[in-house]
Amino acid sequence: SAADETATAAASGAAATERFHHDKSPYDAVKDTPKERVDLLAREVIGAIHETIRKHQVTYDEYNALKAWLIQVGADGEWPLFLDVWVEHVVEDVATADRKGSKGSIEGPYYAPNAPERGADAELPMREDEAGTPLLWEGAITSVDGTPLAGTVELWHADSDGFYSQFAPGLPEWNLRGTFTTGEDGKFRIRTIQPAPYQIPTDGACGKLIAAAGWHAWRPAHLHVKVSAPGHQQLIAQLYFPGDPHNDDDIASAVKPELILSPVTQADGSAKIDYSFALDPQ
Ligand code: MBD
Ligand code: FE
Q: What angle do CA 89, 169, 178 make, to 5 degrees?
């Protein structure tokens, strides 16, 4: 890694928690959730915990281990990571069940708004010597009926060490983050590099849960996108690479068959992908 500092769970957790407070501050007041709804949902979730305790005869030792762990999730700033890895995929499923256009997936904890504008045909911001297989991506934004749309593709992804700028130390602020704005033909052409798989930090509370339960900590390599166009529902998705050993057991349960790319290796060793987005009208 070019980073001379060490990535820690607590530092990336603190950055993700700060990011959430900044971008989603209206939610700090349990925004607009009716009392009846809070009552219903809180009672059912708490009731499900009670049921689990009775069913499995949970002990005081186990209760205190849970309490210590929950306190540590907060101390490490890992609530965004925990929720996005183990909960968000079901929320996404419910929220997008009626869509007819392209499949989406979870946003995760590492989005940053207002990434540099690059136009419709450009390279993602990256270091001079950015490592990784070069990727050429051609596609278009359309409506579900095929009409081209002028819109934006926001793209962000990890580097070839699995690190995200703004959430790991030693990376340029906007490394591998950019906004691509299409013309009336909806077309874009993006040059970037292939990211590495992502490992949940092993030194934080989420890593402790994974180790204690005997799970693995991996997400398959992925590209994150937010695709927007006037009059259409914003699409948040992730795209994956065929053959990744974790496509079938993503720790975040965020892979769908429609989201797996079909890269073609070109003469110069780079990979070319064709992937377009069909957006549902609002
Ligand atoms: C990631 O990179 C990610 O995309 C998600 C959803 C959770 C943790 C790390
Ligand atoms: Fe990610």
A: 60
- Ligand 1 test: best mutation among 17, 198, 238, most atoms within 8 Å of CB? 198
- Tell me if residue 82 falls in helix, strand or coil: helix
pTM of the model: 0.95
CA geometry: angle 36, 93, 208, nearest 5 deg: 90
Distance (Å, whole) CA 27 – CA 9: 24
Q: Domains of the chain, with CATH numbers? A: 1-282 (2.60.130.10)
pLDDT tens-digit map of 112-149: 999 999 999 999 999 999 999 999 999 999 999 999 99
**Number of residues that make up the chain:** 282
Ligand 1 pocket check for 141: Cβ under 6 Å: no
| Contact between 101 and 280 (Cβ < 8 Å) | yes
Find out whether the beta carbon of 106 lies less than 6 Å from any atom of ligand 1: yes
What separation in Å is there between the alpha carbon of 108 and the centre of ligand 1? 5
Distance, CA 261 to ligand 1 centroid (Å)? 18
50: Cβ–Cβ under 8 A, 6 or more apart, which residues? Answer: none
Average pLDDT, the chain: 95
Q: Tokens for 220?
A: 């398959």
Nearest CA to ligand 1 atom 9: 108
Task: Pick the atom of ligand 1 nearest to 238's CA.
Answer: 4
ipTM over cut 0.90: yes
